[in-house]
Amino acid sequence: MTREESDRIALRPMRFKNPYRDIRSSAECKTIIEANGNKHHYYTLNYNSRQYTWHDVRELDIDTIWHVEYPLKNSEDLKSWLNFPEETESRFIPDISHIVQTENEMGDAGIVAIDIASPLCDLAASFSMEDYLVVAMEEPELFHKALERIANRRLKEVEAFSQAAPGRLWRIYGPEYACPPFLPPKLFEEYTVKYDAPIADMIRQNEGFPRIHCHGKLKNVLHLIKKTGWTAIDPVEPPPQGDVSLKEAREILGSNIVIFGNIEVNYLENLDRDEFSHCVRTALKEGPVNGKNFVLMPTSAPYGRNISPRVVQNYRIMIDECYKAEH
């Protein structure tokens, strides 16, 4: 249904012919496959008199990797990680063949969005949530030093890739690590805006369109998002998952930023026909500016292994209501 009747945005990663090797890609990996097909990946890296270990799990029929153990456990691990040697290669060589292939396959049915992690996401995801919050709150100088290292490399990657693949949509995910209730707005500005703004600028310099992907409580950081220079934002979750209505978000962001959202995925799975239709119509009323700068979409994909009749029904409603609004 979505392939045939809606506009598609296919997420694709940056790829390079000379990919960067960091602590994760330098580790030894032992893989154990359970009888049910679940794969466990156990990583070990000995460096600088320290041993880093972590454990990931991929269930057979779920497109998610679960991090059971994280490589960085405390600030001492992070300090040691900062001494890990950087790549000597200063020029990244993009491989955009998968971008071109996807675009050729979709034709006029959609576009590609180049999908990358923010520097904050790369760093925060190397810790458990509780360990990340302790280091981010209590050792900001160390945390900034780590972010600067990641951001310098990420900017070079984006520069090379956006030059090789200009004019595309980009999705930058991970800023929610600095949103309330995890961190206060001041640290959202320090840990997200400071390092993501140059990336967004670089994308725009090569005629691209940077879009921030940020779940959570946005009300007190939307003004910071606006000044960073992103072209678009998703998914702007409605209360109670978020803390700002679509109408309020539009008032804060202004008319030029494109909003993607804000149909909460649990509405898709749980609301009846009338309730769901009301949510869709409200979004189509509050999101656009003169019929533009709004993309209706769910905040996430359905979670379950099976698609229920109600989910199919509500997807049908979304498509039909969009068609009515357009015509």
Brief characterization of the structure:
By secondary structure, the chain is α/β, with parallel strands linked by helices.
Polypeptide structure, described:
With 327 residues, the protein is α/β, with parallel strands linked by helices. It has one domain (2-230). It contains 13 helices and 11 strands. The protein has helices at 2-5, 23-26, 75-81, 97-106, 119-124, 129-138, 140-164, 185-205, 222-228, 246-253, 265-270, 273-286, 309-326, and strands spanning 8-13, 28-33, 39-47, 50-58, 65-69, 110-117, 169-173, 209-214, 232-235, 258-263, 294-298. A 7-stranded parallel sheet has the order 1-6-7-8-9-10-11. The chain has a 4-stranded antiparallel sheet with strand order 2-3-4-5. The model has no long low-confidence stretch (mean pLDDT 93).
